[in-house]
Amino acid sequence: MTYTKRMDGRGFAQTRPITAKAGVIKKADGSAFFKIGDTAAYAAVYGPRELNPKHMQDPKKGVLRCNYNMMPFSGTDRIKPGPSRRSKEISMVTEKSLLPVVNLEDYPNAVVDVFIELTETDAGSRCAGICAAAIALADAGITMKDMVAAVSTGVVDHQVCVDLNGDEEHIHDVDVADIPVAMVPSTEEITLLQMDGKVSKEELLKGISDVTPVLKDIAKIQRAALKERFAKE
Amino acid sequence: MMNQGVKDHILQALNKGIRLDGRKKDEFRPIEIKIGVVATAEGSAMVTCGDTQVVAGVKMDVAKPYPDSQEDGVMMFSSEMLPLSNPQFEPGPPKIESIEVARVIDRGIREGKAMDTKKLCITPGELVWNVMVDVLPINYDGNLIDIGGVASLTALYNARMPKLENDKVVPGSKTGEKIPLNAMPLPVTIGKIGDNLIVDPNDAEYQSLDARLTIAVLEDGTLCAMQKGGNASLTVKDLNEMIDLAVQKSQELRGLIKKALGMA
Predict the structure, then answer these.
(1) How many CB atoms lie within 10 A of CB A5?
(2) Which of A41, A112, B18, B196 has its CB 3.0 to 4.6 Å from that of A128, i.e. a possible disulfide?
(3) Which chain B residues are within 8 Å of A78, Cβ to Cβ?
(4) What is the count of residue pairs from A and B with beta carbons less than 8 Å apart?
(5) Which band of pLDDT confidence, cut at 50, 70 and 90, is reported for residue B112?
(6) Is domain B24-183+251-261 in CATH 3.30.230.70, yes or no?
(7) Which CATH superfamily is domain A18-232 in?
(8) Is B138 on the interface with A (CB under 8 A)?
(9) What is the secondary structure of chain A as a DSSP string?
(10) Confidence check: pLDDT of B1 > 80
């Protein structure tokens, strides 16, 4: 068997429908909502603000602190509130995915806090979180070199498929690899790369090259959300 | 936290009958209710009230009943002050404020006998349905108990039971069958600042409250739960007025919920 037709009828390089909105949380310095299919993320940025305890402060540059969290009802089974090993790891890789574009040198001794909350998930939640966080950082006026866009690229039975949904991730009878990727669109630098599953080197490279234009399109949607927000004000 | 100057200002304005956002003392902020906003939940609701926005989601599972009520389904309410929703909240385990929110919402629905727990029994003494409701602010500007109460009740009415196979829930399944509900209790919080009674306190007002009383009210005006908060005391006269206000406001809120659910 080969994977010739996607379970939800999408093209192989086609993402699920995307909605992006900036400025959705009133008390935050910057915020965004990013939804891709049935995966929805809110992100709020607080800062730059004073970092406590003081010994964690860096007089040369600010600190970026990300916190990824799935709401208890956002998965198949209820998720116990509070950090898990998984959410801690995702918080860390989210931080690393955004660091290369954030000009932290502009914020000595300060912290920029990013809180990401997933209200519903159907695969691709860390990527949705990163997309929301990047819009929220820009919305907060944090100086950035560029946007960061993220989506997973997958390989299902040797076929590259962009943005796997939950059903595709759980196909059992063939090899499925899920490869979340975040990219700086102007330079094509990769800032997040993880993989679960089996692929050949060629498949992986094709996965990356197929997802690159998709990421650039996502960055356009992120920018459009910011433009829409500031056109209103 | 709030500085004394702001508190004084809020009190002086209220003494002249003015709220800083222009509302009347017995006026809620504009409310919008959306149902079924979370695909992964059995039921959900997003309620916006001014700059407070709360999402509630219902998840269902099976559990062993409590030894003292072997034929009753169980329910659980949780809430967290998400740091995403307001700069004054910090990450960490739920603090007393959010525990109180969840417990007061819980008591209104439990004591109001909104849920027919007997119908949520699968095998007496062995297996019952477990209904878990989580209430979370995305935007926080005060009055989480009332807005969370509206969101929780709406999410419960929006919920469809999952499928049961060999005493286990089939993940992601929905039967179309509703949770057995037969009442609509709603908590309404009346705040007291000086001698002024107000409804739907926003964050600045909430932090300026001398006292507050949350009253859960059923459709026929019966009271089913209460919780006093704040450091100041209440008089019987206060209590009288607070109950009347809560009953009146709960009717308005219930009307909005029914409309959102298509029951009106």
Answers:
(1) 10
(2) A41
(3) 59, 61, 132, 134
(4) 95
(5) very high
(6) yes
(7) GHMP Kinase, N-terminal domain (3.30.230.70)
(8) yes
(9) ----S-TT---TT-PPPEEEEE---TTSSEEEEEEETTEEEEEEEEEEEE-SSGGG--SSS-EEEEEEEE-TTSSSSPPPSS--HHHHHHHHHHHHHHGGGB-GGGSTTEEEEEEEEEEE-SS-HHHHHHHHHHHHHHHTT--BSS--EEEEEEEETTEEEES--HHHHT--SS-EEEEEEEEETTTTEEEEE--BS---HHHHHHHHHHHHHHHHHHHHHHHHHHHHHHHH-
(10) no
Q: How far apart are CA B252 and CA B255, in angstroms?
A: 5
Query: Residue B264's pLDDT band (boundaries 50, 70, 90)?
Result: confident
Q: How close B213 comes to chain A (CA, Å)?
A: 26
Phi, psi dihedral angles at A24 (to 5 degrees): -100, -10
A120 CB neighbours in chain B (<8 A) are 38-41
The yes-or-no verdict on residue B2 having pLDDT over 80 is no
Question: Cβ of B78 under 8 Å from any chain A Cβ?
Answer: yes
Contact B84 A120 (CB under 8 A): no
User: What ipTM does this complex have?
Assistant: 0.90
User: Angle at CA A22, nearest 5°, toward A21 and A26?
Assistant: 120
B57 touches chain A (CB under 8 A): yes
Identify the residue whose tokens are 């950082």. Answer: A137
Q: Does A70 touch chain B (CB under 8 A)?
A: no
Q: Using the Cα atoms of residue B175, residue B179, residue B180 and residue B183 in order, give the sign of their dihedral.
A: negative
Closest chain A residue by Cα to residue B131: A78
- pTM above threshold 0.90: yes
Q: Which residues of chain A have pLDDT under 70?
A: 1, 232-233
pLDDT (0 to 100) of residue A1: 57
CB of A197 less than 8 A from some CB of B: no
Residues from chain A that touch B86, judged by Cβ atoms under 8 A, are: 27
The pLDDT > 90 percentage for chain B reads 96
Q: Parallel, antiparallel, or unpaired: how do β-strands A30-36 and A18-22 relate?
A: antiparallel
Q: What is the pLDDT of residue A149?
A: 98
Mean pLDDT value across residues B18-44: 97
Closest approach of chain B CAs to the CA of A111, in angstroms? 13
AA letter at A85: R
Q: Give pLDDT, residue A2.
A: 78
All structural domains of chain B with their residue ranges: 24-183+251-261
DSSP B30: P
**Is there a contact between A25 and B139 if contact means CB atoms under 8 Å apart?**
yes
Query: What is chain A's mean pLDDT, rounded?
Result: 96
Domain residue ranges of chain A, discontinuous segments joined by +: 18-232
Q: Nearest CB to A119: which of B38, B51, B171?
A: B38
Structure tokens at B249: 């406001």
pLDDT value of residue A71: 98
